[in-house]
Amino acid sequence: AQSVTQLGSHVSVSEGALVLLRCNYSSSVPPYLFWYVQYPNQGLQLLLKYTTGATLVKGINGFEAEFKKSETSFHLTKPSAHMSDAAEYFCAVSVAGGSYIPTFGRGTSLIVHP
Amino acid sequence: GAGVSQSPSNKVTEKGKDVELRCDPISGHTALYWYRQSLGQGLEFLIYFQGNSAPDKSGLPSDRFSAERTGGSVSTLTIQRTQQEDSAVYLCASSPTVQKNSPLHFGNGTRLTVT
Does the CB of A54 have a partner CB in chain B at under 8 Å? Predict the structure, then answer.
């Protein structure tokens, strides 16, 4: 079975600073990886996804993530944080053996200070 | 276009009562998912529907939970004899197909509070 671990339930950065949200996965078969963002009182929205091909994936709002098979990681980064980036971020994995039903991590709350 | 619609947005119920939560997926989406989001617990998979196939109920936490999807569209999640531990946000999502790279489109959720 697949699983996802997000290190750090809360990450705090200053506006303009680098954002790094960590995600590690566990899967015995090639995974498909996703990052979603959730703003208060809203559902989740897709930020970016990795399926096959290029390991560096660019998403919306200036976010990107790199799939590193050797490290079983899919960390999310953004060079410069904006106040509007404050939200909950979820990493998810789906695999063939799991009928492609996504398994989500526990989420990381990003706090951006002025 | 219209997104995934869930109703009600908030529901307060007394312990022991039954509740029904509704999800209206994006038109044409064949896959429909229910997840439960509890504070600090992330998203917990509950049940999955794909077209006319038998649903995957492997995530339902107890036999008090059930769901159906009528006509391949609207879905209802029913919780019988609610308990306080059922308090959570229930999220519905749909996707066009069951393809491996097909992302989920989420509704805004139903916040259930059991008193």
Answer: no
